[in-house]
Structures
1.
Amino acid sequence: MDQQLLEWIGYIASLIVLVSLLMSSIKKLRWINLFGALLFGAYGFMIGSTPTGLMNFGIVIIDIYYLMRMYLSKEYLRVMPIEEDTEYLKYFLKFYEKDIGKYSDLSKIDISESKIKLYLLRNMNPAGIFICNEYDKHTLEIALDYVIPLFRDFKIGSFVFGKQKIYFLSKGYDRFVVFTENRDHIRYIKKMGFIETKLNGILGYAKDIN
């Protein structure tokens, strides 16, 4: 194989491994690292460096092992009502304020007056927060749907919008709406089943709960 092409394979493999380390999501890190290590391992064998090839294929096996554990393990997911404006809630919002600001403006959210206030728990770890206001008699407007980077793999979203339907229906609501211009947020809510629609002349996204 052409030497210059081999060098480019090595550069690309190195770049993929480097990019994997920038991922905040462990699942994304493992997937990207797996492809980078696979390419780097092949590169190692192509240049005659058996130790490099074996080490990276070993990394591939480790990544596959942990990915299988992630996909096959049964996780405990739960929502827990926020009863009052506690010190923990203030610390949580302050700690993740910068990250939350990428998707929502906390200064415009009055949590104490919100109709639905939930902590999102994953294996009993505080993984996020879900805040809704009443848009109309039977509709909830999502003011804040935040999951910390470590758990940002759609499992919690699927749990809230799927398995928690009875909770929201029992409160008398049968539809969610959300207004956002953030592209990442739009991709997320569309993946959760929200449909673009006009609400009182304003572009928004809606999802029927039942």
Note: DSSP finds eight helices and seven strands in the chain.
2.
Amino acid sequence: MSKVVHIMPVGEEKEVLLESIKKSGHPIQKVYLVLGKDKNLPEEKEAYKAATEIEKTLNVLIEVDKIYVDKLDVYSAVLDMLKAIKQEVSEGNDVLINATGASKTMCIACYIASQLSGSKLYMVIPKFKAGKEVEFDRVTEILVPPLKRVGEDKIVIIRTIDDEGGEVESINKLIELLEGKTEDQKTYMAQRARMSYHLKGLEEDGLVVMQREGKNVKIKLTELGKAYALMYR
């Protein structure tokens, strides 16, 4: 039976976080608490305390797990969340991301993870008085625009580069990995033109960077490219 899974970066205000998932309008069968890997950071000490209290409250009725991320590195956090999201989706579960307790960096990471995975994103909208948050107002879903579709040919290229550790030494090497060697000049020229076309598009989309080194052009995945490689396997 499928579950509804909530992924929730933890901040200091545990009561608001608990209220946000209760009033999300969605069932709750499992919650991931997202915490910083460095628990000695001043702001993270309070987050760990809040997470302990949240876990005590929730795990009586639902499953609670944790994801540890680098909260100062957007794409590193995205990758760590996507690993959990992909696992849940592969098991047939629905995933929602709750950005209520997220820092600015983590809000961006939540947004990107939502966009890449197609997960719903929601958060508490607070009331303000004299420029300060004074109370809980409502929970709202943040509508995330769909990503530009990346064609299957480009996805295969991204995955191949990722399999090589995130970079390939030359266009010729990439062609060899994907299509094998050929001695036929006409076939090679067609392969080269097709690969150059796809790589130009991937570079324009911010998924790869190409760096000339001598006679060759090295192709490297960007952090966003690595996230695509992980999600679209």
Note: The chain has two domains: 4-142, 152-231.
3.
Amino acid sequence: MTTQAATSPIHWQRIAKRIRVPLGFAFAVVFLLLATPAWHSLAWSLLLVLPGLLLRGYASGYVKKNQELTTTGPYAWTRNPLYLGSMLIAFGFALGARSVLLAALLALLFAIIYVPVIRGEESFLRAQFPGFDHYAARVPRLVPWRAPLRSAAERGRFAPALYRKHREYNASMGVAALYLALILRLSFQHGR
């Protein structure tokens, strides 16, 4: 493999897609080592973490991966509600950890991992679904900043079966485990 092929955007998109979950677990360990939580910061973190969890859960009940271009529910507001939810959760935990360094590392992680993954997914969707370009022109990539697709927002319903199929409940379990670890760390800090 040539150096140019090894560093191509498409090559990195594939690598980023494969390593994003394991890297997230590795980052959780670093997170716990660098976190300096306080009771008030954990309470404030809920303002981002809970909406992030709700958004991820809500979006998972609409998306039919690789079967159709999902434009209903939260997908009428943003093309990537699952990633937006993940970002809210992650930055909520950075707030809970009271760490600017963790927030900066998270921003870097999202930039080098999720930006290429999103672009790769958009290339796939563009090739699979002829209406993707029209959808992409009307719906923001990540942060909802304009009115939703009116017709798309009115169609579709949340499907609990899709939520279960995508195992989105794992996000809630991960959040609960991370809060438990932070609370234990905080309890041991006060017990010294």
Note: DSSP finds nine helices and no strands in the chain.
